[in-house]
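Input chain follows. Return structure tokens only.
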Amino acid sequence: MNELPDLSLLSHAEKDALIRALWDALQSSERRNAELAIRLSDAERRIAELEARLNEPPKRPDNSSLPPSRGQKPNRPEKSPRKGPRKGSLGREGGGRLLAENPDQTVIAKAAHCQHCRAGLTDADQRLAQRYDKIDLPPIKPVVTRVERYAGHCPCCGATTLAAVPEGMETGTPFSLNLVALAIYLRVIHAVSYR
């Protein structure tokens, strides 16, 4: 109903129905207005929270739970463009570990003859093609010290005197303190059996 009907033409029952319909519409619009007021107050509260957060310091890995990869990288000096090929790295020709300054021994490998035609090669025919280090540990072998302890028989009193031994060479276990310490370390730290 877009226009108000002529009220003089309406009966009492029709006027009562019109009043009830208007009353229901009024109640419905009041409910909607109350809901909109609640939503508006929630929106205003949220806006106030967001404006308050604008004044907070920015989140960084050192002041929040952000992972380090999300942090801003420090200003680094400008790198000058590389001239020539990049320096060798592990796995590339010319890269890897530097050679030892004073190797313990040097192996010189020279070819006696050509592997294709079997012609003999002299030192003048060859040039250094490759140089590298092979690093190894020396073989570990135990140092066994035999203790020979003499007993002297005194010609005056007839008593026997046993010679003193250096500290750490006393009778008992045949293993030195260093070896016992190594065995305990291997057993406790690396769970190696005593056997």
